Amino acid sequence: LTSEPTNMDDGYRDRTAFIRGAKDIAKEVKRQAAKKVGRSVDKVADEYTKRSYSRFEEDDDDDYPQPQDGYYRSDSRHNEDEGANSDSTEGHDEDDEIYEGEYQGIPRAESGKADGLGGPQAEGLAATGAQFRDFGELAGERRKDREELAQQYETILQECGHGRFQWTLYFVLGLALMADGVEIFVVGFVLPSAEKDMCLSEPNKGMLDPGLIVYLGMMVGAFLWGGLADRIGRRQCLLISLSINSVFAFFSSFVQGYSTFLLCRLLSGVGIGGSIPIVFSYYSEFLAQEKRGEHLSWLCMFWMIGGIYASAMAWAIIPHYGWSFQMGSAYQFHSWRVFVLVCAFPSVFAIAALTTMPESPRFFLENGKHDEAWMVLKQVHDTNMRAKGYPERVFSVTNIKTVKQLDELVEIGADTGAWHRRWRMRLTSLFHQVWGNFLACFSPEYRRTTLMMMAVWFTMSFSYYGLTVWFPDMIKYMQKQDYAMRTKLFSREKVEHFTFNFTLENQIHRNGEFFNNKFINMKMKSMVFEDSLFEECYFEDITSSNTFFRNCTFINTLFYNTDLFKYRFVNSRLLNSTFLHNKEGCMLDFSDDNNAYMIYFVSFLGTLAVLPGNIVSALLMDKIGRLRMLAGSSVMSCISCFFLWFGSNESAMIALLCLFGGISIASWNALDVLTVELYPSDKRTTAFGFLNALCKLAAVLGISIFTSFVGITKAVPIMFASGALAAGSFLALKLPETRGQVLQ
User: Which segment of the chain is annotated as a signal peptide (predicted)?
Assistant: First the structure.
């Protein structure tokens, strides 16, 4: 009586094991067949989702169905349940399909025991193997998805056409690029006035150099916003970065302290640093292949317009008292502050215009947001068709490929904890994603491209920014030399009972004697008194600039309402002399700045000179290719550097500046287009931001090195610039040509 049930149980278990093995074989054959013939996108996504959930199920959880695709390992209790309910599916899979194929030897949970491993150990190894297999398969699927998406996206853009929508976006993003061009010039233009208005000492002046303030801020901003734009969106990041730029630019026009002004300009640079990487990536994702090179080059013109705007505003505002006004007895809002405020307008206008534009549909598709991308592309299509007179044309695309998404590393819910913990987790997760995306630019697939692009960006920036700042400094040096040659020298003069009520300028008085003289209501510009005696003299209503008294003696002298402060008396003695109602603060006198108009004019001409290069590069970019444009322009710029030997006067230096700028701009346009097209959409702004940050670092080095040789020698700047450009043109030819390829 007892043996009969035992035999029945043994038969039942054998039958259950047989059914389970048959099902495992059928499922494995199905998986192998699916890998050979290729499965649809929805089927693969469903399979991956089920496998992912199966890894998180508890062994003793019977509330959720087991995955029906792939093989599943469980304990004996689950196997018994499965066997007890498998009669209806014996010999068939879940889709009622019968498969033929070779058994691949799929290990079951029990096989681990035969090898000396317990059930939990075998299950752990199997789960780990499945996880790595799933990740590898997912990476391959994502790569395949991107290739299919690139081809389909190009076809969709061609159906949408090029028209009103792209031109509207062109002007909106052009304002953002214009703001970047303005930022480069702002601090350099206001530096002479800010030095006087803020009473800056010589050690502090160097820190206000644009190569140490604006470029450093832009370097940080380019890397930061470029990385974030690939994760949270091009439009959103651009809005945030422009807002930061405009806010701190506005604050910098009102602050009175030097350190606060310095901080505001630094943060303003951080904000505008994201403009170039995001703008070019953003615009490229709305352009079809045959339009991309040309229209990205046209977009570069707005950087030139920004420089022209800054130069023109500086010329019209800074040297004129009419723009200044006073707020209270101590606050002076001089014209250079008005100029800083006006230079924030392009950024403000760009923010207002950008709020009317949609996010990049390519970004949506890369992040699995199909419906949002479809709506944007439909908007592009309908806008262009209405403008062309075909409002009846319907957007025919119904389904767009999306890139399969990786599992989120952190799931943040309301029950995670306090709000600050949730934000900390979000920021930590975002940081890891951005950093991982940056490191992916150095993966074996992109390492050579990234290293070559780093070298080209660095050499181009080092030579271009170094020379464009060196040219104006050389012109200033020549002007100072010419001014010094016209200095009048007076020696051992004796002046008694005389009233000076006219301007004294560019004079040196040595060993003079001034007895009972009056200096009333006058200006002193670039005046130096050395080893002179002033006895019973009277100074009233004096405005001075670059005026000093060295080793002089003052006896019974009265100073009333003057700006002759103590630092103007170098090693001088004041005996029985009195200062009454001295002027407060540092007086700002624009009439003493002989170089202001010339410097603004030189910058205006140098920026305007790139217009022909912009036009030529836009018309030829898609005809001769990016590499030929880049290498050819770099070689021509290298040759033009040797003409600097003949720059012996101001006119020659201005002409050489215009020549160099007009030639080199074509290489910059080609480099921008090449950078956009060499990287896939999920790494585009990250790579562009990193390379642009490296560009700003090279600019700082180039400016520092080149300007240190002003007035010393031309040989070093010429050799550095020509050598860097030659190296850049050679390396550029090693890069892959991207003309004619779809956007990755």
Answer: none
Cα gap 682→145, rounded to integer Å: 13
- Cβ 425 vs Cβ 599: under 8 Å: no
Residues 720 and 466: beta-carbon distance below 8 Å:
yes
105: CB partners within 8 A, 6+ apart: none
- pLDDT of the residue at 642: 85
The three-state secondary structure class of 665 is helix
CA atoms of 685 and 675, how far apart (whole Å): 9
Task: Tell me the pLDDT tens digit for each residue of 506-558.
Answer: 899 999 999 999 999 988 888 999 999 999 999 998 888 788 999 999 999 99
Q: Please give the distance of CA 631 from its chain centroid, rounded to a whole number.
A: 24
- The mean pLDDT value for 306-318 works out to 88
Q: What share of the chain is helix, strand, coil (3-state, %, to 5)?
A: 65, 10, 25
* Cβ atoms of 20 and 87 closer than 8 Å: no
With CA atoms as reference, report the closest residue to 665 among 622, 706, 616: 616
Q: How many CA atoms lie within 13 A of 8 on its CB side?
A: 5
Give me the amino acid identity at 334.
H
Residue 50 Cα distances to 33, 66, 67, 71, 507, angstroms = 19, 9, 6, 11, 89
Contacts of 369 (CB under 8 A, 6+ apart): 402
Residue 176 and residue 172: Cα distance in Å, rounded? 7
pLDDT given for residue 736 in this prediction = 86
**Spatial distance between the Cα atoms of 412 and 589, rounded to a whole number of angstroms:** 60
Q: How far apart are CA 258 and CA 552, in angstroms?
A: 32
Burial of 655 (0-12, 13-18, 19+ CB in 10 A): middle
Amino acid type, 434: V
Asked if residue 111 has pLDDT above 80, the reply is no
Question: Which amino acid appears at position 178 of this protein?
Answer: M
What does the angle CA 587 – CA 591 – CA 594 come to, to the nearest 5 degrees? 120
Say which residues have a Cβ less than 8 Å from residue 275's Cβ, sequence separation at least 6. Answer: 176, 177, 179, 180, 238, 241, 242, 245
pLDDT digits 0-9 by tens, 592-625: 455 667 778 888 888 888 888 888 888 988 888 8
Secondary structure (3-state) at 505: strand
How far CA 736 is from CA of 156, 581, 627, in Å, comes to 26, 71, 8
Nearest partner of 464 among 701, 677, 109, judged by Cα = 701
Look up residue 681 and give its DSSP letter. Answer: T
- Residue 405 pLDDT level (bands cut at 50, 70, 90): low
Distance in Å from the first CA to the final CA of the chain: 75
Place of tokens 């390519």: 362
> Structure tokens of 656?
């050489």
Give the integer Cα–Cα distance in Å for 175 and 632: 29
Q: Which residues contact 501 (CB under 8 A, 6 or more apart)?
A: 518, 520, 521, 522
Best CA proximity match to 544, nearest among 525, 569, 570: 525
CA distance 709 to 702: 11
Domains and CATH numbers, the chain: 151-199+209-405+442-477+592-733 (1.20.1250.20), 504-580 (2.160.20.80)
pLDDT per residue as tens digits for the range 47-98: 434 443 343 333 344 443 443 333 333 343 344 443 444 343 344 444 444 3
d(Cα 25, Cα 3) in Å, to the nearest integer?
A: 33
